[in-house]
Design goal:
Layout (H helix, E strand, L loop, with lengths): L3 H25 L32 E3 L6 E3 L2 H26 L17 H25 L14 H36 L7 H5 L1 H6 L6 H22 L5 H28 L17
Antiparallel strand pairs: 1-2
Length: 289
């Protein structure tokens, strides 16, 4: 009996520690664990009111930005405050974006489906027809090296390399960079501005209107007329070249114009499905009286 007393005295503190630790663990598991998440506001401890705080959808607790102590909230109040928190975070993001862009709205592609308009279709078809007519006139000369009547010595391997290389360069520089990224979206966007209330002259001359040759900003008209006159001058200059260099140049021009015509048709088809290009139509500024 006397030998068991010291053992009982030693086990009694251990048993007491085990009971206390079990109660601490059971108490801590009653509250949910919180992960690191940025808080957009704080809790007003003086009035005990919720002020746009961080709400956790998985539980009905709020973690204040000033303290890490969880504060229980009713489930209905937590769910009601969640949409306002998302709107506040969205407003903060838009404010930062506006500060970066200088207050201007970012140019994004709209997703509203466009209603079909005969005037817009007439403008797009007119521009594509102009490009197709130029392709039709240049294509026979560009295909002369493939004809059997051409002598084998007239087109050397060096000429073939120049033929293919210039066609690829023009397809990228004129077709992709010039048409698909700049001119084609402008044509489609200006064509879509034609509606039932548009002037009759704009509807009849829908193709030149879509190209920005008139009823456009001064800068747009200068650029459009420069491009149009430049293409006409280039075609006349190419006619003075002799074979095989005329075929090489015409092949590159045909590649660029073909890419441009297809890009205009493709962008217009996407616009009818709701993907309208975000480029500025460069309409003239309306002066207020």
């Amino acid at each position: 009996m006397s030998g068991g007393c010291p053992l009982r005295v030693l086990l009694r503190p251990l048993l007491l520690c085990a009971i206390l630790s079990r109660r601490i663990v059971s108490f801590s598991t009653r509250r949910p664990l919180f992960c690191a998440r940025p808080s957009t506001s704080a809790f007003d401890w003086s009035s005990n009111k919720l002020s746009t705080a961080t709400i956790y959808p998985s539980s009905s607790y709020k973690l204040s930005a000033l303290s890490s102590t969880p504060w229980p909230l009713p489930e209905v109040e937590a769910r009601a405050a969640l949409p306002s928190t998302r709107r506040a975070a969205r407003d903060v993001s838009m404010a930062k974006l506006a500060k970066i862009t200088g207050g201007a709205a970012p140019a994004v592609e709209t997703s509203q489906k466009q209603s079909f308009s005969l005037s817009a279709l007439w403008g797009v078809v007119g521009v594509v027809a102009m490009l197709s007519n130029a392709i039709r006139r240049l294509l026979p000369i560009a295909l002369e090296p493939f004809k059997k009547t051409a002598t084998p010595t007239a087109f050397t391997p060096l000429h073939w390399a120049q033929y293919v290389g210039f066609a690829l360069i023009m397809a990228y520089a004129e077709g992709y960079k010039g048409f698909q990224l700049k001119f084609s979206p402008l044509v489609v966007k200006r064509a879509l501005t034609l509606g039932p209330r548009s002037p009759l002259l704009h509807k009849v001359l829908a193709a030149p209107y879509s190209m920005g040759l008139f009823h456009a900003s001064k800068k747009r008209q200068i650029v459009s007329w420069t491009i149009a006159l430049g293409v006409i001058g280039l075609v006349k200059a190419v006619k003075t070249l002799a074979f095989p260099y005329r075929s090489i140049v015409d092949a590159g021009v045909v590649a660029g114009l073909s890419w441009g015509a297809l890009s205009i048709a493709g962008i217009y088809a996407q616009a009818l499905r709701g993907h309208v290009p975000s480029i500025d139509p460069a309409l003239p500024d309306v002066k207020k009286a």
